[in-house]
Amino acid sequence: SLQDEETRKDYDYMLDHPEEYYRHYYHYYSRRLAPKVDVRIVILVTVCAISVFQFFSWWSSYNEAINYLATVPKYRIQATEIARQQGLLNRTKEKGKNRRSKEEIREEEEEIIKDIIKNKIDIKGGYQKPKIYDILLFQILLAPFYLCKYLVWYCWWIYCFTIKGQEYGKEEKLYIIRRYMKMSQSQFDSLEDHQKETFLERQLWIRENYEVYKQEQEEELKKKMAMDPRWKRYRRWMRNEGPGRLTFIDD
Questions:
Q1: Which terminus of the chain has fewer Cβ atoms in its 10 Å neighbourhood, N or C?
Q2: Who's near 190: CB < 8 A, 6+ residues apart?
Q3: Could you tell me the pTM of the whole model?
Q4: Can you tell me whether residue 170 is helix, strand or coil?
Q5: Are residues 235 and 175 located together in one domain of the fold?
Q6: CA 2 → CA 7, 110, 115, distances in Å?
Q7: Where are the transmembrane segments (predicted)?
Q8: What is the pLDDT of residues 160-189, one digit of tens each?
């Protein structure tokens, strides 16, 4: 019959072209068995997981930083003075029924000092309290806003200082210096105020002045390294032994 003839032709074709059969077979079952998951959901879940990890990791690092700052005299003295002014340290030394051991008093005073460092003292640079807007999820959501904000600021900069030729203010000078030094905002904020004043006094926002300053810093660093005993030992080792030095010893 006609149907048997067509079936025979299809059968003969598949025998002559087996690679097509297996290809169709593979594509058919790969589509049937593939998990039907929306890629957008996978990306969203991944971003959220990374953001949660970021936030808790930053908080852990922040608490470690506070514990460290509580041992730094500059911050500890400020915090202790504020605690005394507010009468917080006197409460830890109550007598009578509420009397506590010296260890308990010491621990409570330590917590008071840390709490004041967190909330009362202006901490700059990498020790700042983590902000939820810094995590990946919000950075992605706010990317269009940050882009528009940067374009507005850039146009304002060009208009004021390139077109109109206005003189730089203090913040603009420090911004240019920071860009020359290739430092992030948090790194630059962590510098002492007297260092920034030195930058301004030397007019480092002018490229030529900055290049002179950079050369001086490099020379000073070379002198320090030359006088450092550890660096001397390292150079001696590199000269005498060094990584990858081949030796041949006869048995």
A1: C
A2: 124, 125, 126, 127
A3: 0.58
A4: helix
A5: yes
A6: 9, 96, 91
A7: 41-59, 136-159
A8: 999 999 999 999 999 999 999 998 887 888
